[in-house]
Design a protein that fits this description.
minor pseudopilin epsh fold, 9% strand, globular
Length: 239
């Protein structure tokens, strides 16, 4: 009877632990110039496309690791440590070869994810005003943008990202990057982008990346994306 009671108690405790909301997945990063930004909404805010557990793990584990990476690599690199994240990525050639790959992979991921969280948490729909006009002019309208963007994202081999870049004149273009590379490395600014690494979608979608890409549009925050467009034209958009 004691063994049975103990088994039941442990089983109930395990179920209770699984039911605890707001699980803390975040890992502490080494001290340094970069820090993990907080999610601007609850982890379940994007349930129309991404489940809360994926959001928690993606932010608190994957992104946190990509903050720890550059902080470690920049130890003793005073000049590079003083650079804002976008300038660091635009000047990777100035980094010592011994840390350049670590910065490319981790600082790139830090920039990509910092953008990624900002543009979600919305209800989808479509942009308005100057941004909608730019989409019509440069990308053939919203329907064509969704189709071309999703097709490009589905074709990324292995891990990577699909982006819409924006120039300081407000010109838009679709591009893809492997791994955690960022358009910032080519001197381009990012309006929006979607993560097509499997960790971004696998718990819900398994190998169904096209389904994930389609549903992702349902959680975009077009007000936030519009603010990024305005900032790009003003020369104040960073990551």
């Amino acid at each position: 009877m004691d063994i049975q009671r103990r088994t039941l108690f442990l089983g109930a405790a395990g179920l209770a632990a699984l039911a605890v909301p707001n699980r803390a997945w975040a890992q502490a990063a080494p001290a340094g110039p970069h820090s993990l930004p907080a999610l601007p909404y609850a982890p379940n805010a994007n349930e129309a496309a991404i489940d809360a557990t994926t959001m928690e793990l993606h932010h608190g584990r994957h992104h946190a690791a990509q903050v720890a990476g550059p902080n470690t690599a920049l130890n003793g690199q005073a000049e590079l440590s003083a650079m804002p994240l976008d300038e660091l990525l635009m000047n990777l050639g100035r980094a010592p070869e011994a840390v350049r790959t670590a910065l490319r992979n981790n600082a790139g991921g830090h920039a990509n994810h910092s953008m990624f969280w900002q543009i979600m948490g919305g209800q989808g729909g479509a942009p308005t005003g100057e941004l909608l006009a730019a989409v019509d002019r440069d990308l053939g309208g919203m329907d064509k943008l969704r189709t071309d963007f999703n097709t490009a994202g589905a074709r990324v081999f292995g891990s990577g990202w699909v982006f819409v870049t924006v120039s300081n004149a407000g010109i838009l273009a679709i591009t893809t990057k492997p791994n955690q590379d960022s358009p910032l490395m080519d001197g381009q600014r990012v309006l929006m982008g979607n993560d097509v690494w499997e960790h971004a979608y696998y718990l819900r979608y398994q190998n169904r990346r096209p389904e994930y890409l389609t549903n992702w549009w349902n959680v975009l925050n077009w007000n936030a994306i519009g603010e990024r467009f305005t900032a790009a034209k003003a020369g104040t958009l960073r990551v």
